[in-house]
Amino acid sequence: MKLLAKGLMARGIITLAILVAFTACGGKKAEESTENTEIGVAKDKKEIVVGFSQIGAESAWRMANTTSIKSEAEKRPNIKLIFADAQQKQENQIKALRSFIDQKVDVIAFSPIVESGYGPVLKEAKAAGIPVILTDRNVDLSDDSLWETFMGSNFYEEGVKAGKWLKDNYDRLKLPEKSSDTVNVVELQGTVGSAPANDRFKGFRDGIKDAPQFKITKTQTGDFTRAKGKEVMEAFLKADKNIDVLYAHNDDMALGAIQAIEEAGLKPGKDIIILSVDAVRGAFEAMVEGKLNCTVECSPLLGPQLYDAVEKLMKGEKLPKVIWTQEGVFPQEVAAKTLPSRQY
Ligand code: GYE
User: 280 FRET partner, CA 20 to 30 A, in 4, 13, 21, 216?
Assistant: First the structure.
């Protein structure tokens, strides 16, 4: 009897060990693949299950956004988060949204990779009675009954702020030998078809519209990544070194471009004035080194306001259709003082 019990126990331990090993691998796999990862377990009966579909991990901004969404869920005992990483592919994102609908989550939240193509899946969520919150990026659908609220930044305004900053500061920053009559500006765009790329593109042009000396001579996507930002900037410089300003739709691309500029034997922040968007830590470090001139803030810390909105929805409260994040502009002069207090 004792022997049998021991044998059973030993087998149990082995099974447990195998299970643990499997779960450990499985957990890692889930992080790397598009499978859903559950954060937190059923914590109490009044738990709210939130399915969140993230774009990927293309930039420091995105990673800070993911941390905010996950860590805030952990802090709230009533929230169970099912997190899915789309790894930069819209088809993965649509699949994740459908799986949330199948799992009958209480609320779906997601950051749409591009603006178009979500109509059918959002209609399916509506038919299933699952409310949807758009975080960070918007969709281009006219039927706004397909989501409860959009929360995030005004990308158009960010572009305008960048343009205005350039207009107001270029003369002060330019090298004496540079002309003020024609200023050659190159632009690194974000992901093609995404809301921040579309709106930062438009906003910037409006920000400099009454300053005809600024000529946008080249514009191309760098897909919001450092590697692509570097690659495209290399190509720009190869084609023509006569570049006075770089406007990048995010800091990561600007940081990649800074490398390309240095490798081409030029001084970023001096020979080429550089401005970008996001205000991540790396941008502040580059400003402290004098290599970046300005970053327009775009906050990724959306976790707290997301779950506040989820909880309100579950109480039957109506949400405002848009919840804007308040943001500033940080020029190089304030970088050293501001860097220690940056949260992302
Ligand atoms: O600016 C960029 C990221 O959607 C606001 O996506 C976000 C943008 C952000 O990859 O760094």
Answer: 216
